[in-house]
Design brief:
By secondary structure, the chain is of the alpha+beta class. The chain has five helices and seven strands.
Length: 225
Amino acid sequence: MAIYRFRVAIEGDETVYRDIDMSSRHTFSDLQQAIVRHFNLQDGQGAEFFTTDQTWYEGDEIATLDGSLSDRGPRLSEQVNDPHQRFLCSTRSYNPLGLLIEMKKVLKDDPALTLPRLVAHEGEPPVYTQPPPQHVEDTGEEDILPLSAFIKPENGSDETEPVLGPGEDEMLEFSDMEDGDATEIADPDTTGGDDDDDMMMDDDEGDGEGGDDMGNFGSFDPDDM
């Protein structure tokens, strides 16, 4: 059994790092929990681990962990093939954090040590308190309230008066009239019928007075001029 000393640095800002000693018997879940503790990440933070080369090119996936102890992942010794072995880690979160993991030393086992342990650190880790957004189920329908829901009645009652469009108030008043009122409006005897009779009589009288004149006009001879 050996002790692996890993340097875990923030991707994009390698001045922020933590040197952590791990046992070769530890799993990637143990490494993940050490990273969460020493970088002040959220408890139970999930993560993905990948192989990589000396240029930090992402290779094969090693383990996908949800942060629980039920999924341990493989042992570290199963993936260490080089004294400067490198791994990539990405947190599984709304705001993922990339980590560069590089082995710095391989030490002899010391039963007196409690592992994992933090042996060196530099820089402040990023503030990581943003939780993932809450899931909102999309029903495909928009909840649209009627305009009357925003109008407060003037009489102080709880009932809301309907909102009428242009001309609808007059139509409403006409529809609310009693049958007798509608009949009264439609009856020609009550709407100036006597005046119509007087006008007809005037026309007859005019025909009587001007009858002779019209006859004379009809017998006009142009030779008389």
